[in-house]
Each structure stands twice: as C-alpha cells, then as structure tokens.
Amino acid sequence: MWPDKDFDFIKLKEDGEGTHYGLFEEEELVSVVSIFIHGVQAQFRKFATLSRHQNKGYGSKLLNYVLSETERLGVKRIYCNARMDKAMFYEKFGLSKTDATFSKSGKDYIVMERHIKGEMNMSQDELFKI
After folding, report:
1. Where does the N-acetyltransferase domain lie (predicted)?
2. Are 105 and 113 in contact (CB under 8 A)?
3. Sheet with 96-104, edge to edge strand ranges
4. What is the pLDDT of residues 56-100, one digit of tens each?
5. Boundaries of every domain in the chain
6. Which helix (H) or strand (E) holds 99?
7. What's the Cα-to-Cα distance from 85 to each of 38, 89, 91, rounded to whole Å?
8. Is the pLDDT of residue 10 over 60?
C-alpha cells in the first residue's frame, strides 16, 4: 500500500490490538489485512496485495475470509477507509460509501461500511468515536 515509505510509516500504536491475516502463495506472503474489533463494530486496515500479485483474486479471497470471520464473531458493522480510486472494489463486497471523506499523505479516502444482520442506525458522530 505504501511501498515507497519506511516501515515506521505504516506502524500504528494500535497494531497490537488487531488481528492480522495473511494469504500465502506457496511460501510468499502476497496479501495482508488487519482487523480491529470494538464491540459489535470492526475496522479493517492495512489491506494490501503485492503489486505483482494483484488482479489474481488473492485480495478478494482474503477479504471474503475476513468478512465471514468478523460476521462469525458477531460483528454487526464493518468499515474501512478506502482510497477513493478503489471504492468500486469494496462495493463488490457489499460495502457502501458514507459521507465521510478525508485526505492523508496526498491520497483521498472515503469511509465505506457494511452492516451485517440488521441496521445499527448510528449517527455520523458515533461512527468516528471508535
């Protein structure tokens, strides 16, 4: 996701609180994602696939697994900060755009979400208190 940045750039203080998943092709780690669960909500972050392995279905397979796993764990809402240019990819997995947008390090993002087994009816302010 940030191949031109130092490893410290992608580290977050919350990394120890997340569950980290990876998909391997033989012995090579080709796709990763981290899940941070807070009650009945979860955020997936750091979702990336090596550029030479993109468009082969690895990321889709990993994301499908994580979505199923979070549902199994009782999550009712899952969301991510999607790059604007990748929003259509996430829509294929049932995530919808919200009104929340922001920019970071020269990239534009939109918060996308998927409600599982019913609506949570949360206000925009409640969304970001996680």
Report:
1. 1-117
2. no
3. 19-25, 28-38, 41-49, 77-83, 107-115, 96-104
4. 999 999 999 999 999 999 999 999 999 999 999 999 999 999 999
5. 7-127
6. strand 96-104
7. 27, 9, 12
8. no
pLDDT band at residue 18 under the 50/70/90 scheme: confident
> In Å, what is the CA distance from 127 to each residue of 12, 42, 93, 98?
20, 11, 20, 10
Locate tokens 């939109």: which residue? 110
Between 122 and 62, name the one with better pLDDT: 62
Backbone angles phi, psi at 9, to 5 degrees: -65, -35
7-127, which class in CATH?
A: alpha beta
- Residue located via tokens 């755009």: 97
Residue 121: CB atoms within 10 A of its CB come to: 7
